[in-house]
Structure formats: C-alpha cells, structure tokens
Amino acid sequence: MNRINLLSAAMFCIAPLALGASAALAETAPEEIVVTGQWGKVPDSVQSLSQAVSYADLDLSTAAGHKELKHRIDLTARFLCDKLGETDTTIPLVPSCRQAAIKDAMSRVDTLAASAAPRGTTWVRPPAWEAPYPADWSTRYP
Length: 142
Known about the structure:
mainly alpha, signal, 11% strand, two-stranded antiparallel ribbon, UrcA_uranyl
C-alpha cells in the first residue's frame, strides 16, 4: 500500500472518532448558573449553600427565556436563603442573602444573554429543569 493510501485510510478511521469526541464534549458542557446564598454577620459565622440552575431548556436570546431564568434564580435564591435561616420577617442584612445571591447570578446571566444566539431550528429542547424548591413556589412567588 502506498503512502497516500495509508494516510487516507488513517484519516478515514480517525475522523469519525474526532467528530464523535467533539460532539460528546459539546453535549456535556453544562448550561447552568450557580446560585450561592450566604448568611451570617461576621466572616467566621458565614454559611453558604449553592445550587446549579439550568438554562439548557431555555432560549436566552428571547425575552421569555431570560425572564424564566431570572424567575428560576429568584426562587432558588429564596430556597437557599430560607435554608440558611433568612425569612421574609428576618431583619435583613445589607444586602440580604437573597438580594446578594440574585445580584451575583444575574450579573452572569446578563453576560450570557448579551451574546446569546437564537437556538435555531435544529435545537432539540432537553427535559425541563427540575427545581430544588417546592413545585407550588412558582405560583406562590411569581
């Protein structure tokens, strides 16, 4: 077998592997924002909880997608900060756990949304994100 045929055969065998690997990497890249709630008065007593909020099923190039992600972040921040001890009746620290968590996460969302391209006609919507908070929170805290 000559050298050109050998190279052609090698490329024929390697190319599908490379394409498969790049497709697998593209599929595993998480489309999520991590929301972190922190609670405490001094650095030694600060506690924190974090939760990933997926936007894989949203189109951030649309107002509706951006609004839904903000709502998920708001509710997740409420959930985390409630677990840490902040409630609606708690005298809030400045800023409150919830406000700080939302502000931090939304700064990253705004960066993503600024460069978001429409999902396109070949996009297949993955299953909806499963929220960590109770299902009725979406209507209780609109």
